[in-house]
Design goal:
This protein is an all-alpha fold and 143 residues long. The protein has a single domain, classed as Four Helix Bundle (Hemerythrin (Met), subunit A) (Up-down Bundle), CATH 1.20.120.550. Helices cover 74% and strands 0% of the residues. The longest helix has 30 residues. The radius of gyration is 19 Å and the shape is elongated. The relative contact order is 0.16.
Length: 143
């Protein structure tokens, strides 16, 4: 008896749900730089938050990127769930999702590397992709 294995189709629902998981993981991307900075200055387990002023500049910026990632994710996750709930079409979902995830990676990178203009551009692009999900979802829901 032959068993045929097939990959599940890539659907907008799968893309949206997986993008929420990836977006959550990206929150911690800049935190690798924070962790490295903490070990550079001597990690204090009893008061890790009190170390902030001792961190190198790049690690302080990484902390801010990490905090901003939380803020961005609190807007993105409901937008993706809203798009999931109304059943947006692939062409309405894929671009926004890929742009959001890519711009959050570049945002963190440019923040840690101290490239403010590109950081701000990445932020604006990520926010635009979030609001395109909201807009498309509302248009789909209210026709």
């Amino acid at each position: 008896m032959d068993i045929v294995y097939s990959l599940p189709l890539v659907s907008p629902a799968n893309i949206l749900l997986c993008s929420i998981a990836l977006g959550a993981a990206l929150i911690y991307l800049p935190y690798f730089a924070v962790a490295f900075g903490r070990f550079q200055v001597g990690y204090e387990m009893s008061s890790p938050r009190a170390m902030f002023d001792k961190l190198p500049d790049y690690a302080q910026r990484a902390t801010w990127a990490h905090q901003n990632s939380w803020e961005s994710f609190t807007l993105y996750a409901p937008a993706a769930l809203m798009a999931f709930a109304v059943g947006l079409e692939p062409e309405q979902v894929l671009g926004s999702v890929v742009i959001y995830l890519a711009s959050r990676v570049t945002y963190s990178l440019f923040y840690v590397l101290d490239v403010p203009i590109l950081r701000s551009l990445s932020w604006a692009i990520s926010i635009s992709s979030i609001f395109s999900l909201y807009l498309n979802s509302c248009q789909s829901a209210f026709g």
